[in-house]
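Lab channel / #folding
Pinned by the channel admin:
"Please post every new chain as: sequence first, then the C-alpha cells as a reply. Keep commentary short and put observations after the output so the thread stays searchable."

First post following the new format, from NK:
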Amino acid sequence: FKLPSDSVKYLGWCDIEEHDVRGNELRCPRVREGPSEEELFFRGEEHTLKKRKQVTDTEKWQKKLQENWENCAELNLSFQDLGDLYQVENFKRILQRLIRVEKLWLVDNSLTDLSAIRLPRCRELNVNKNHFTSFRQLPKIPQIQHLSLAENNITTLSGISDFRHTPLESLILKRNPCEFQERYRQLVFSSLPNLKMLDGVPKLPEDCSPPDIRFFFKMCTIL
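Reply from TO:
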C-alpha cells in the first residue's frame, strides 16, 4: 500500500510550496535530491513526480539562498540512509557549503571518504558508526577540538599525526580495530602531545612515556 507521503518522497524540503524555512533553521534535515527522469523511468516510478518545468537562473539563486547552509553553526545530518548515488553526491554538496559550521554530527551514514571536504571552523565532529578505515579519509578540520570516531573500521594509527598541529583535545576511537594495538594509548598520546582525553579517559602519567621501540623487535623462541 502507498503511504500518504509517496507523492513527495523525492522532493527536497526547499521544493515544498508556501514555507519560509531556511536551511540553517532546520534541526535534523534530510538531505535528498530526487533521481533523474531516466532513472525513474527504469524504476517504473515516473508517475510519482510532477512534470518538471524549466528552471530559470533567478529561481536557482532563490533556492540556493533558501538552503542557506553557509550560515549553519550547528548541524545534525545523522542517519541519512544514503542508499543511492544521487543522495551521496547531494550530501557531499551540502558538506562543501558548511564554511561556518562549528559542531557537526554525521552519525551512521555509511561514509567512507570525506577527504575532499574542508570544514574550516569545525570544532566538534562526530562521525561515529561509519565506514572510515583511515584518518586520511576524514575531512580537513584545522580547528578541531573534539573528534569522535567510535565504531568505524580504522585498523592502524597511520595518519593520526596529521592532527598534531590542530587544537585537538579529545579523541574517541572506541570499537575500532586500532584500539587493540599494543601500547595503543602511548602511541596515540606520543603522536598528539596536546591531546588531553582519549576514549573518555583523561591523560594518565603512564600514557606519557614514549613507546618502547625494542618492543617491536622482540621475538619468542620455542625450544
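NK: The radius of gyration is 22 Å.
TO: also worth noting, Residues 85-96 form the longest helix (12 residues).
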